[in-house]
Amino acid sequence: MARPQARYVCTACGSVQPRWMGQCPDCGAWNSLQREDAAAATPFARRHGLQGGGRPIELQPLDTEVALPERLASGLAELDRALGGGLVPGSAILIGGDPGIGKSTLLLQAAGRIAQAGRRVAYVSGEEAPAQVRLRARRLGLGQAPVELASATSVRDILTTLSAGPAPAVLIIDSIQTMHSDQLEGAPGTVSQVRASAFELISWAKARETALVLVGHVTKDGQIAGPRVLEHMVDAVLYFEGERTHQYRLLRSVKNRFGATDEVGVFAMQADGLVEVANPSSLFLTDRSGALPGAAVFPAMEGTRPVLVELQALTVPVPSGATPRRAVVGWDSARLAMLLAVLEARAGLAFGGHEVYLNVAGGIRVTDPAADLAVAGALVSARLDVPVPAGTILFGEIALSGEVRPSAHAVLRLREALKLGFVRALVPPGTGGLGGMETVAVQRVATLVDRLGRA
User: Fold this and answer.
1) How many CB atoms lie within 10 A of CB 200?
2) How many CB atoms lie within 10 A of CB 246?
3) pLDDT digit of tens for each residue in the chain (455 aa)?
4) Burial, 96: exposed, middle or buried (Cβ in 10 Å; 0-12, 13-18, 19+)?
5) How far apart (Å, rounded) are the C-alpha atoms in residues 279 and 299?
6) Distance between alpha carbon 127 and the CA centroid of its chain, in Å?
7) Is-contact 212 205, C-beta < 8 A?
8) N or C, which end of the chain is more exposed by having fewer CB within 10 Å?
9) Could you tell me where the beta strands, DSSP code E, fall in 218-285?
10) What's CA 281's distance to the chain center, in Å?
């Protein structure tokens, strides 16, 4: 029998190398290559291809009329929103997040409510005993929910048990890094074990139309641990985000085959579990009773939902010859450097002798490029020590030429701001208006500096 040949797979990009190296030559990640035994290269495999000897499959036309799957409500509207309307039978969902962020709490709450609605739910934990899960369920007020619990790590044992009776409507595996397949050698959590275990669970769930939810560990960089192919195997990937020092939690969809990506659900962590937040803008806005220099309100788009956040800036003069510091929390530091250069080159506002600090209130992270104008407004306000007029929002993308470019979903942003009492908006030229909201077109960053300087 031919001897299996060892190969090394990168957990970051999935590339295969013939030997171990400290750095992946394809993606540049360090210490990401893990050993995996390749299939034995037999003389039979070398002589025969895959163009014959198989079972013919049925090809169907694209326009075939099929019934759309009925979604299963989780009992948590914010979770259903992130999933695009609820759980799809036969789908595989991967949820990742930092340790202690609330992944198990969220799924236990959803499992309890689905079970109370009359559906069969199986919760398999590879990290906790059933008694520990019961204690958490009682704290969440779900001690009487008919959820079926088990503590197991063997994929064969789990699927054998579930195949003996009616398939559950929802199967939760916490977590996929603890699962083990006896068809392969290696400890749980290795590349081959995670991939093989996930493949067997997903195949079983799709064959029996069971909604499968996998919990995934994350690395120190915030990415789901294990092979990158795991995110390609599932139908939806959700990240549970938030700071432990803040009560809010964001459930962000980064992949969804049954709905929109970048959709978010907002929760607040309380003593009795996660509570849905109907108006997330109230979490991220501080008291607006008085206008202060260096603060600007930006209507960010999180998926299809507008959320108002406050951007805070502070500039401090530094002694001559000292290197000024740039500190950013919740935004891209490279984009801040670009905006500072544009303000200095196109508007004549120098920041070279000042330290610059930028913070997004509430701990949320903003990635919307339309935040450029709001960040520039906060920086100009802090530099000139003049507050942004009360009741004003700002949004628009700034080019290197200093021009302010239009942004998508302008009407949704304006409507959300008007609902929360804002009456004025500094917007890119050509932005449509909204009744009750005064829109002021800002064509260039120099116009923004002049307008705030006269405020």
Assistant:
1) 17
2) 14
3) 455 567 888 887 778 888 899 998 888 888 888 887 665 555 555 555 667 767 888 898 988 887 777 899 999 999 999 999 999 999 999 999 888 889 999 999 999 999 999 999 999 999 999 999 999 999 999 999 999 999 999 999 999 999 998 999 999 999 899 999 998 888 888 888 999 999 999 999 999 999 999 999 887 666 776 667 788 899 999 999 877 667 788 898 999 999 888 788 889 888 888 999 877 777 677 666 667 899 999 999 987 788 899 999 999 999 887 889 999 999 999 999 999 999 999 999 999 899 999 999 877 889 899 999 999 999 999 999 999 998 999 999 999 999 999 999 999 999 999 988 899 999 999 888 888 899 999 999 999 999 887 76
4) buried
5) 13
6) 23
7) yes
8) N
9) 236-241, 248-256, 264-270, 273-276
10) 18
Among the residues of 173-273, which ranges form H helices?
191-207, 229-233
| Strand 273-276 versus strand 264-270 pairing type | antiparallel
Q: pTM value?
A: 0.77
The 10 Å Cβ neighbour count of residue 58 is 4
**Tokens linked to 24:** 């992946």
Measured in residues, the chain has a length of 455
For every residue of 341-376, DSSP letters joined together read HHHHHHH----TTEEEEEEEGGG-----GGGHHHHH
Which residue shows structure tokens 């044992």? 157
Question: Which one-letter DSSP state was computed for residue 166?
Answer: P
CA 277 to chain centre: 17
How many Å from the N-terminal Cα to the C-terminal Cα in the chain? Answer: 83
Instruction: Please name the residue that has the structure tokens 């030229």.
Output: 429
* Torsion angles phi and psi, residue 229, rounded to 5: -65, -20
Rounded Cα distance between 102 and 260, Å, is 23
Q: Where are the beta strands (DSSP E) in 127-179?
A: 148-151, 170-174
Q: Both tokens of residue 403?
A: 């021009």
- Edge-to-edge strands, sheet with 392-394: 326-329, 354-360, 305-317, 295-302, 392-394, 424-427, 438-441
Helix (H) or strand (E) holding 8: strand 6-10
Measured at the CA of 256, the angle between CA 123 and CA 233, to 5 degrees, comes to: 65
Within 13 Å and on the Cβ side, how many CA atoms surround 41? 5
- How far is Cα 163 from Cα 238, in angstroms, rounded to an integer? 28
Residue 316 identity (one-letter amino acid): V
